[in-house]
Amino acid sequence: MIKTKLLSDYKTEILSGLTVSLALVPEAIAFAFVADLDPLVGLYAAFIIGLITSIFGGRPGMISGATGALAVVMAELFLEHPSAKDYLFIMVIIMGCFQILFGLLKLGKLVRLIPEPVMFGFVNGLAIVIFKAQFSSFKIKETGEFLPKEQLIIMGALIIIVMLIIQILPKLTRAVPPALAAIVVTTLIVIFFKLDTKTVGDVASVSGGFPIPHLPKIPNNMEMWGLITKTALVLASVGLIESLMTLTLIDERTKTRGKSNKESIAQGLANVITGLFGGMGGCAMIGQSMINIESGGRKRASGISASLFLLSFIIFGSSIIEQIPVASLVGVMFMVVIGTFEWETFNVLKKIPKSDALVILVVTIVTVLTDLAVAVFVGIIISALVFAWESAKKIGVKSFIREDGALEYDLHGAIFFASTTAFKRLFDFSVKEDEIYIDFKNARVFDHSAIESINWLTEEYKSIGKKLHLLHLSYDCVKLLKNAAGMIEVNVVEDPEYKVSDDELA
């Protein structure tokens, strides 16, 4: 029973890997073209990166390879500095080293700082980007014009057939991944009826040998070293953001948890080796990862088999793969778009705060217009500013006269750069009481701006002859005050319960 279940699982994983490998071919070729590189440079990257990350990565089931996000960065560099193309492979190696360092420093946890609205925007924006990318398949590569009307009609019909098979087949059987069945069926239709439609072979040849290791060309001047290193850092950042956000998305879809630091190291190792074997570098591919997950691929075997199938296509099966109609792969990607897009967004936008809705829309739009890394940074910055603004509005105070006749203010809320103006307005300097107590029991002091505000407060009361006492300072605040010694001078009352003041602070 256990043996049968194990064999069934491996069958699912391998068939899922075969489906993914077929979808990898046109994507890798297309991204190589975007960066103005030879198609094999993209195919080798897809094979090597996919294999290494599947073996050593922190997210089984996630597929990595050559991606559009990195190809665009490379294309911009090569357009402005054509000579930089000679140093592509050393740039990919440096990129990998940055990613390994990121993982070793255990910075993968930073992905947890990405708010949920940013994730929504990221997923929706990427779905739109994948959708837009498919329309290049309807055009003639050399001229950029649309294919003849008859070919467009055939492509449209084949795409519909693919989408129907993927939609209906799971209701009948799960023995074969629906995307794989759809590709096989449409390929047989094209061959049997000798239909005039665009095939993988029309895009580029996928024939090649086993990738051979070689030493990359090294820049011979510091200016080029600086340019290459800077671009490698950008590539590393973009690659890690896309990989770790894809990891998070798959975690949510599969109800499991990947290891972000382990994945970062594996991505870096993969890019270092890719650079040594003549690949263009890459990262996680959300489209192919979703195909794998939807086809039942959950373990390392699916990614490993996808890479090995891809290599076998390059070495042995190029003539077969080149007969696959591009329309079948476009249809698969259209279904990926439908499955990736968070359709729930339209309902969520009506229920969430306007600031969160704004973040979702901005990240979606920026992802489509620029790239993922910029969109994520913009989304995080907006979210942080909104959080700071909302937190700043929650500061308040209650005042009363103590038994000894002194005036006491009981603070609540966070005191930091965004709330210091509101903090200063809480106090009345025209009161008749000579002694003022400020109780920080329900407040927190977070940064240097807050310390400066406390300093300002003490100076103001001192200038009008009032004596100020500070109560219940938190440990963090005491630490900040100690760090600011010599810059400010405050009068802190010793609190016998919390023991937060001493002679050094008085």
Automatic annotation (TrEMBL):
Per UniProt, the keywords (alphabetical) are: Membrane, Transmembrane, Transmembrane helix
Gene3D superfamilies registered for this protein in UniProt: STAS domain
Q: Which Pfam families match?
A: STAS, Sulfate_transp
Protein's membrane topology: Multi-pass membrane protein
Domain STAS: start-end pairs: 404-506
Q: Does the keyword Signal apply?
A: no
Query: Is the keyword Oxidoreductase in the record?
Result: no
Q: Where in the cell is it found?
A: Membrane
Q: Which GO terms describe its cellular component?
A: membrane
Source domain of life is: Bacteria
Give the transmembrane ranges. 42-75, 87-107, 113-131, 152-169, 175-193, 227-250, 270-291, 303-321, 327-346, 358-389
PANTHER family from the UniProt entry: SULFATE TRANSPORTER YBAR-RELATED
> What's the protein here called?
SulP family inorganic anion transporter
Originating organism: Thiospirochaeta perfilievii
Species classification: Bacteria, Pseudomonadati, Spirochaetota, Spirochaetia, Spirochaetales
